[in-house]
Amino acid sequence: ASVRSRAAETLTALEATSIPDDHWSWIRKSMFPLPTPPSPLWSPTDRTRYFDANGFLHVRAFVSPQVVEEMKNEMRRLAEELWNPGEEGKTRVFRTDEGQVEAQGSDDYFLDSADRVHFFAEKDAIDEDGKLREEFRGDKIAALNKAGHGMHVRPGAFHDYAISREVGSLVRELGWVDPVIPQSMYIFKQARVGGEVTSHQDSTFLFTEPHQTCLGLWLALDDSNLENGCLWVRPGSHREPVRRKFARNPEHFGGDRSAPKMVFENIASSENLRKVPWDGTLPDGSDPPCCDGLFQAGFVPVECKAGDLLAFPGELDHLSLPNRSGKPRHTFQLHLVEGPEAGVKW
């Protein structure tokens, strides 16, 4: 069977599965241990039950084509005005492979991007000297991997979306009480050079205490499909513990300035780590056209139309394959966590 037909079979089965009316919300179960009931002002909807049972929710036509176009136009303008690759030394790249700690864990440009817009190129668009390859010099936007992580802070289309009625209504429908937005990003997934995003949990990077509360809102700005690197999710994996935490490195802050500032710290048990040997990589046999290794590991691709949204909690295992097609796959992503009114810190 084709990848698309295997995916349709899996997703249809998930939609047909009966979910009890008296289930407990993923986020509120964490916040209010049994037998304390959720707030009487909140009751789960069918979408909430699906989200809690499977760890993701596909909302079709979440925003209008006009909103999509406004975001893409604003991103184009920001890149043209603010990104000057090579003028301030080596152009930064963004990686999720074995070079991630070196690329992001020691770079102040990345670490200081929480409240502003910084730009990160595709590794295959940069030459050995850290400059744009010649074929991208006439179209620098085609070399970008991502921009972030304070897109929502600037007045404009991204800010308007972040505070929109649609976003607020969905987040509260899913059970969040005091949502705050620590991070936003624009992912380009460029035609032909858009790199893979390896298996990960968003709570690795947005770790909250005393429990995990991260919520990802993944908005498709182009049609996202098997050909251009759509998202693959592993249904049910949101019930697994966070495996790794991207944390301050005690060696660096203890005096060794040659050590990276941030490192991955294994925080799950050895048993849980062994159950997911592909964490930070891809399962063996993930390559198209069959992608058998992904299906065997429990992943399923979720194709989206421009304007569709995927919502998922921070523990969900997800990834995407490289874009080898001739079409880009732009997305805008918000990451929310519960705030202090919900007794949470991050």
Describe the structure.
With 346 residues, the protein is α+β, with helices and mostly antiparallel strands. Helices cover 25% and strands 19% of the residues. It contains 11 helices and 13 strands. The protein has helices spanning 3-16, 26-31, 46-54, 65-82, 100-104, 108-111, 157-162, 165-173, 250-253, 270-275, 292-297, and strands spanning 57-59, 117-121, 144-149, 179-187, 197-200, 215-220, 231-233, 244-248, 262-266, 300-302, 309-313, 318-320, 331-338. The strands form 3 sheets. Strands 1-11-6-13-4-3-2 form a 7-stranded antiparallel β-sheet. It has a 4-stranded antiparallel β-sheet with strand order 5-12-7-10. A two-stranded antiparallel sheet has the order 8-9. The longest helix is centred in the first third of the chain and has 18 residues, at 65-82. The termini are far apart. Residues 30-38 have low confidence and may be disordered.
SSE sequence, one letter per element: HHHEHHHEEHHEEEEEHEHHEEEE
Terminal CA distance: 44 Å
User: In DSSP terms, counting alpha (H) and pi (I) runs of 4 or more, how many helices?
Assistant: 11
Low-confidence stretches: 30-38
Biggest sheet layout: 7 strands, antiparallel
Principal-axis shape equals globular
**Number of separate strands:** 13
Strand composition percent: 15-25%
Structural class: alpha+beta
Helicity level:
25-40%
Descriptive labels:
alpha+beta; single chain; seven-stranded antiparallel beta sheet; four-stranded antiparallel beta sheet; about 350 residues; 11 helices
